Each structure stands twice: as C-alpha cells, then as structure tokens.
Amino acid sequence: MTFKEYIETEKEKFGEMNKSEKLAYFKEYYLKACIAVLVILAFLVWFLIDMGKSMKAPVVTGGVLNIHISSEGSTFLREDYMKSLGLDDKKDKIEFASYILLDKSQPQSYTVFQAELAAGQYNYLITDKAGMEYIARSECAADMNEVLDKEMKGKLSSKMIYAESGEGGKIIAAAIDITDTAFSREYMTSSDKVYFVLTGLIDDYDAGIDVLKYILNKK
After folding, report:
1. What is the pTM of this model?
2. What is 149-186 written as a DSSP string?
3. What phi, psi does 64 have (nearest 5°)?
4. Burial classification of residue 95, based on how many CB atoms lie within 10 Å of its CB (0-12 exposed, 13-18 middle, 19 or more buried)
C-alpha cells in the first residue's frame, strides 16, 4: 500500500466513525506518535538555540582563581553585569569560571590553566597573590600602565601591584588590588588579598577594563 493509499483508507475509516470513535481511534493509533514527534521537535528547537548561543562570541570571559566568591558575587559578574550593559542573555552570553584552583598536588591543574591562558580564554581573572604572580610569570598579564587610560592610572596608581613578567626580570604593573572595594568585602569569602588581572594574550582589553570599572563602581 502506498502512502497515498494509506491516507485515503484512513480518511474512509474516519468518515464512518462518530466523534467518540474518532477520538478513541486517534488515542490508540496516533497519540503516542504525535507526542514523540512533539518531544523530538522540542529537543531540536532547544538544540538549535543552544548551538546558536554557544557559537556566539562571549561579551566577556572571566574567572576567579585560587580564592572563593559567593554565589551572589557570581551573579553580580554575570546576570547583573549583563543587565547593566542592557543586553539580553538569550542573545548574548558572559562566560565566567567561578572557581579555578591551582593545586600543587595536582600538576595537571597547572597544565590545563596554562593551556587556557595560552589560548587567550580569559579577558580577566580575580585572584590571590600566588595566582597573580603565576599569571605574570607566564607572560599572560597585561601591564596596567600600558592598557589603562590616563584617568584610570591616576585613580589606581596606589592600587597597582607589580610583579615579574616572564624569566627576563621585566617588572610590570600586573594587577589592581581590589581588596578594599565594596565588591570584595561583600562577595569574596577569602581572607587573602584580592587582585584583578587583565590577561595579556587578548589584544582588545576593553572588555576586561569595563568589568574592572563595574567592580570599582559598586557601592
């Protein structure tokens, strides 16, 4: 029987049935198939939307290294920051790693993080002294004296933290000390100093600098 003949046969069957018989017939032979089709369609729609979002370049990518941030702090740097930019999280995305740990007992943690830095994965990182120095030694910290504008350098000159970049002994302003900010007091649960670092393998530092301004402006 061809598909056309099948359709004609089904139409004849339905034509001979009353309303209740049609409903019972549909439930018995077609309901499960219709539900399966709807589930598949819903999955495909979700998959296509998710793929579309994942293919978009993030507005900014950041992370917290070696220290702890509260869930409210993560929200502040993701959802709240997205709203402050006037963007829609259905169309745009912010990538944020809320806890990156460099553990000496697990050398692979350094290997993975080094690979992420080398790939230019982060616009910024919030970290402790050890993390800041590691990023600087890896030559992945931007020199704040070179990337900040004159006004920001004037405001933050006393907060600049210097560290050695690479193995050649070059000293750079590798971080901004944000320990005494309202952001750190409210959201950082560590007793360590808190530093803000711009990673040095991303040519455009504007995205990370904008996050720094957002953090500093928190009341």
Report:
1. 0.75
2. -HHHHHHHGGGEEEEEETTTTEEEEEEEE-TTSHHHHH
3. -115, 125
4. middle
Contact indicator for 77, 218 with CB cutoff of 8 Å: no
Pairing of strands 94-100, 60-65: parallel
* More confident site: 16 or 107: 107
The H-or-E segment that residue 97 falls in is strand 94-100
For residues 164 and 146, the answer to whether their CB atoms sit within 8 Å is no
The single-letter code of the amino acid at 146 is E
| Cβ neighbours around 56 below 10 Å, total | 10
CA 27 to chain centre: 45
Q: Are residues 126 and 184 in contact, defined by beta-carbon separation less than 8 angstroms? A: no
Average pLDDT over residues 144-161: 96
Tokens representing residue 9 in the block = 């046969």
186 within 8 A of 72, measured Cβ to Cβ: yes
Rounded distance, CA 151 to CA 149, Å? 6
CA dist., res. 123 & res. 134, Å (int) = 16
